Amino acid sequence: MPINNRNSRKYIKRLTFQKKEKTKDKEGNTVTDWVDKFTVWGSIKGLRGRDFIDAGAQAVKISTRIYIRYRPGVTSDMRIKYGKRIFDIVNPNNIEERNIEYEILANEVNLNG
């Protein structure tokens, strides 16, 4: 079945997914750093106010929803880079388990402290 492209206009931002990995620096030392894994088109929806997701006994504050077309390999130990902005993935939700689209709940990281 072909993918319905009627929503293709909503994917207008270029998003790079990164994962923390051990690599070697110029001197051969092992360092842990964020490594680009793949880049896709997506959309970013900032949430107004506070949106709390109740996860059992713990409530999680979410600042952003990010939407991308489905692709295997998106996990909660990744982060998303958009320009100079960084988003930590809280929950990658494969909507209705249909392998069409992800709704990724994320928090924007303030790199300035």
Strand elements, count: 6
* Structural shape: globular
Q: Average pLDDT across residues?
A: 85
Rounded to the nearest angstrom, the distance between the terminal CA atoms is 47 Å
What is the count of DSSP helices, taking H or I runs of 4+ residues?
0
Q: Please give the domain count.
A: 1
List low-confidence stretches: none
- Percent of residues in helices comes to under 10%
Please summarize the sheet with the most strands: 6 strands, antiparallel, barrel
Organism: Lederbergia citrisecunda
Protein name: Phage head closure protein
Pfam families: Phage_HCP (PF05521)
InterPro entries: Phage_SPP1_head-tail_adaptor, SSP1_head-tail_sf
Textual characterization of the structure:
Strands 1-2-3-6-5-4 form a six-stranded antiparallel barrel. It is built from no helices and six strands. The chain has strands at 13-24, 30-55, 58-69, 78-82, 85-94, 101-109. It has a single domain, classed as Beta Barrel (Thrombin, subunit H), CATH 2.40.10. It has 113 residues and is mostly beta strands. The mean pLDDT is 85.
Give keywords.
single chain; 113 residues; mainly beta; Thrombin, subunit H; 6-stranded antiparallel beta barrel; 0% helix; Phage_SPP1_head-tail_adaptor; Phage head closure protein; SSP1_head-tail_sf
